[in-house]
Amino acid sequence: MKQLSFSALLLLVVLITGSCKKIPVVNYTNSSISFKIDGAYKEAKGNQNVFGIHAKEEKGMIITGDMDAAGDQQISLLINNFHGVGEYSGEENILLVYTTPEFKQSILGSEGTIKITEFTDGKSIKGEFQIKGKAFIINMGDPDNDTEVTKIFSEGKFEAKVTTGPIVEPD
């Protein structure tokens, strides 16, 4: 009789705990951006350093990553005519802006692609990019020695939390 009571109690516990509604734990993103610039690996991690802004009315998306605590090294990917998952290319649709203490001017690039592989409005974005960027180095003392520097941004990957709002232009 004790065996039957114990078996019935065990079955009751299994049925009750097995039928409870499970609440999934969803982590929308582990914010990060990584890429190689001329073969040198760069990375930013964390929600405070990597984020996205979806400007619905302007049909734009901006993904930004700060590589260091001082904010001296930053990459931004801008997508015009943004419509979610898909591939974007061409200077009318994409722009990469990279700042670093190595150059006085930002490196700008629009030759390449940004591919959005996942997008949940107001929550997260994930994708890849490969872009060629250029900086025009102006030599103030000798304009004949101005130079153009080309940098290749390859193996780019990003995942970021996304907020929705307008792009605010300064007065």
Description of the molecule:
The chain is mainly beta and 171 residues long. The chain has a seven-stranded mixed beta barrel with strand order 3-4-5-7-8-9-10. Helices cover 11% and strands 51% of the residues. It has one domain (29-164). A hairpin with a 7-residue loop joins strand 4 (60-66) and strand 5 (74-80). The chain is globular and about 50 Å long.
Q: Strand content of the residues, in percent?
A: over 45%
- What's the gyration radius in Å? 24 Å
In total, the number of domains comes to: 1
**Helical percent range?**
10-25%
Give the helix tally: 1
Number of strands: 10
Tell me the structural class: mainly beta
Mean pLDDT across all amino acids: 81
Gap between N and C termini: 84 Å
What would you call the shape? globular
Query: How is the biggest beta sheet arranged?
Result: 7 strands, mixed, barrel
Order of strands in the sheet with the most strands? 3-4-5-7-8-9-10
Spans of at least 5 consecutive residues whose pLDDT stays below 50 are: 1-28
User: What is the H-and-E element order?
Assistant: HEEEEEEEEEE
Question: What is the secondary structure topology, with strand pairs?
Answer:
Blueprint: H1 2-19, E1 32-37, E2 40-45, E3 50-55, E4 60-66, E5 74-80, E6 86-89, E7 94-99, E8 107-120, E9 124-137, E10 147-164
Parallel strand pairs: 3-10
Antiparallel strand pairs: 1-2, 1-10, 3-4, 4-5, 5-7, 6-8, 7-8, 8-9, 9-10
